[in-house]
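Hi, here's the filled form for the chain we discussed.

Project: internal
Contact: R.S.
Residues: 291
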Amino acid sequence: MHKKRDWTLSLAFPCTVIKDVAGQDMKSYICGQIGRALAVFNVNEVIVYDPNNKTQGFAENEGKSHTSCDLSFIVHILQYIECPQYLRKYLFPMHEDLKYIGLVNPLDVPHHLRRNEVSEYREGVVVSVSNSVSFVDIGLQKHAKVPMILPEKTRVTLKLDAQAKGNYVGHPVDPAEPRLKNSYWGFDVRAATSLSEVFTNSPFGSYDQIIGFSKVGDRVTKINVSNSQHLLLFIDINGELLDQLKLDADLQLESPKAIFSEFVNPLINLKNSSEVTIDEYLFSVLSKLRL
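And the returned structure, exactly as it came back:
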């Protein structure tokens, strides 16, 4: 269910969650299921991080470590499926990472609009500029006109001002505006090359509540979520997060557990949670929160 929300929900997990998955086809499928969980539970930001602090400039896989490849692969798949279908041809050239993208289930989120669907907001890509007017493909029969110069091949969120005789006129707005006014509007994907970057590069400045989910977490029957403005959930499926936080020299944490308002084991009835895949873990955790 997608609903209006004036606060943000972020979720962080390590890129190592797919290191033991056999085959790129299964890795692609699991990344797609991660995206489904994010969309179903209205997650606004997902951060994929390298827990080993070994990734440097993750943009290309060639010549990188196995961990670096997993980081860029997950980010690439999540960015692709979050993007509306009609914009992918502009933003995602052919790439080896997308070889099995056909196995991934569509998100079918509110900003993935079809041609016959009416919406005040639409995602678009600037395809050309002429006489101080930018023409934006918004997935309709005609491009929208924006009375300003915008960089070509840039993705924008447009608010449509008027529709007359098949012409569309709009202006760019903050991508957060549809969420604040209307409904869920997808998730941003952020790559963090270290654990410290999860915190230092936050688009919100900081997170006012952080909850950790780990198989070494406390056994509780109820999770307390305060009225936070920016909530961050840490997913620690392998039970290594506390040690990794302590080893991160940039964080300098004497007591890593202290940064969490709660550090819990959401699967207390499961004897061996290591058998659970990341997508299954996410659906279990997010359904328990009832956000």
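Let me know if anything looks off before we file it.
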